[in-house]
Write a structure and sequence with these properties.
With 567 residues, the chain is an alpha+beta fold. The chain is built from 8 helices and 34 strands.
């Protein structure tokens, strides 16, 4: 919470000590209320799961003043199998922020629509989270120990509409050298984006425990026709009875998706831009009250468009109309894409500066954005209501002097000529003289004061880390693996002074994706057998934004039997 304070409080000596004490108590209570407030968010790694599958609930608080979370309400519909607590450090372009996260590994007890109740921390609580729990599948495709599934949420879609393609690899045995191939497409051109980070969780099918690796892709067909998705391939060597088999191949079923062309535009919007999505919302905010706006003073209008199941580059420009008497100046839009349970959510933020030049009430017309609902298969319109912008007139100018009759001019007394001496140059001369005198005194004082060696200022902690990360990124782009390792290990000694990682492999376990994967590739390229390469550009990119972990893990409940036989 940001608290803005304005004004200066002046205390005179005549105030009593009792008043000062009471005022100090009030300030202390206000400070405690500010520190105790914490924004709490709850999220799940998957919103659609099967019964007897585990999933992760994360409760994040932006500061640690709220105490421990109260999660007793979870026991009604879930088995709490594990709890981990950790702090996270985000480093983005040198800026460092910290948060605290509690991660609960849960297994649902009932099927259907299940609501995760709010989690309370002190006087604050999170919003409830709704998940869908399906009954477990009874059929096991492929081999029982390892099999691969692939699902598409739509088999009939439209051009540039999102199709979520989910790949799952089920393993009940330990594998070596696993490789999951990226999906391949034939037919129409398609744009594929990662709709979520790769997830790993546990599942129970027919009484058998599996470890599941899940990847979700957002597919955007760029033309009408038939999109063919080839079967997904998974290769690995299997460990059975202490022996490792040769490489085995496991494949999923293929999919065929019919992509329809863009439907006709609605009659009331013949030039509507094509925007297929699951939902579209428009919101606005103003920098100040627009009911009473002085003429000539600007007011900022911010319009935010959010579309679920679409990319931000597909959201059209709104281009609102300014009425006569109002000048409008648009700013550069902000585009962003974020993955969530329903796919990719795109946002476009527009900002306009409005200046009223004519006094009176001016009507800002309604903002309309037509879009295609892929679920309802119909055109819909997102709207912002019309606004009345009231512009107040400026202060009236002074009235001109009364006109003088011609005959009165001759009788007027000639004005006296008065010479007014300007004080501008006199003040300038005095200022220059004072500046020269101060310069002379400063020179004399510097001559008589011995100058000792300057004490070097200590570089701030975050700047040291930022400097090491910049060197590591440069070395990654240059392909210098040794420098990358040395700079990152030096950075980790600052981040974990009491328990610094001794090698890059350990460091990879304490950072978030995709940096974890890129560091593991660097380690494999340095020490693994065979000719293996690492991507310096991808590693440099992953070093720009990542999170660190300071986790302590505790078991809750009886837990489950081992999930990896023979491991």
């Amino acid at each position: 919470m940001v608290v803005e304070r304005s004004g200066v409080a002046v205390f005179e000596p005549r105030l009593t000590g009792r008043f000062v004490a009471k005022f100090g108590v009030v300030l202390a209570l206000l400070a405690m209320s500010v520190l105790s407030h914490a924004e709490i968010t709850a999220s799940v790694d998957r919103a659609d799961i099967e019964l007897n599958e585990t999933f992760t609930l994360k409760v994040t608080v932006d500061n640690g003043q709220g105490g421990e979370p109260d999660a007793a309400a979870l026991n009604k519909d879930f088995d709490v199998l594990q709890l981990s607590q950790g702090s996270s450090t985000m480093i983005v372009n040198g800026d460092i922020s910290r948060s605290f996260t509690w991660s609960y590994t849960l297994m649902p007890k009932v099927a259907g629509q299940v609501e995760i109740p709010p989690i309370k921390i002190g006087n604050e609580q999170s919003e409830p989270v709704l998940i869908t729990v399906a009954k477990p599948s009874t059929a096991l495709p492929g081999e029982s120990d390892i099999f691969v599934t692939a699902e598409a949420d739509y088999t009939d879609t439209y051009v540039q509409a999102q199709v979520l393609y989910t790949i799952k690899v089920y393993r009940s045995v330990t594998t070596r050298q696993p490789r999951l191939w990226e999906p391949t497409f034939e037919g129409v051109e398609v744009l594929a984006e990662a709709a979520a980070e790769e997830r790993s969780y546990d599942s129970m099918l027919n009484g058998k425990a599996y470890n599941v690796v899940e990847r979700v892709y957002a597919l955007f067909p760029q033309e009408s026709g038939t999109l063919t998705i080839a079967p997904v391939r998974f290769e690995a060597r299997v460990l059975r009875a202490g022996r490792i088999t040769g490489r085995k191949l496991f494949v999923s079923e293929g999919h065929v998706i019919n992509v329809q062309p863009i439907p006709p535009r609605p009659p009331e919007f013949p030039n509507a831009a094509w925007l297929p999505a699951k939902s579209v919302n428009i919101t606005e905010s103003w920098s100040r009250d627009f009911d009473s706006l002085p003429a000539g003073e600007p007011v900022t209008r911010r319009i935010n468009v959010s579309a679920l199941g679409q990319l931000s580059t597909q959201i059209p420009v709104l281009d609102p109309v300014a009425p006569d008497g109002v000048k409008m100046y648009p700013d550069k839009p902000e585009l962003a894409d974020q993955a969530e349970a329903g796919g990719i959510r795109a946002t476009r933020k527009e900002q306009y500066a409005l200046i009223g030049v004519t006094p009176g009430e001016h009507q800002l017309p309604e903002v309309k954005l037509p879009w295609w609902n892929v679920d309802a298969r119909e055109w819909q319109v997102a709207k912002l209501p019309a606004r009345a912008l009231k512009v107040e007139g400026v202060v009236a100018a002074m009235a001109p002097p009364p006109s003088v009759e011609p005959e009165s001019i001759s009788s007027a007394i000639p004005p006296e000529i008065v010479t007014v001496e300007s004080s501008l140059w006199r003040n300038v001369s005095i200022g220059l003289a004072v500046a020269w005198l101060l310069t002379l005194i400063s020179w004399w004082w510097s001559r008589r004061t011995p100058v000792g060696p300057a004490t070097p200022e200590e570089v701030p902690f975050h700047r040291q880390q930022a400097r090491l990360l910049r060197k590591a990124r440069k070395a990654a782009l240059d392909g210098d693996a040794a420098t990358v390792k040395s700079e990152l290990l030096a950075w980790s000694r600052l981040e974990w002074p009491d328990d610094a990682p001794r090698n890059i492999g350990v460091l990879a376990q304490r950072v978030s994706e995709p940096l974890t994967t890129e560091l593991q590739r660097l380690v494999s390229a340095s020490y693994a057998a065979g000719d293996m390469s690492w991507d310096g550009e991808a590693l440099a990119k992953s070093l720009r934004s990542f999170a660190t972990r300071h986790d302590t893990v505790s078991e809750a409940g009886d837990g489950l039997p081992p999930l990896m036989p023979g491991a």
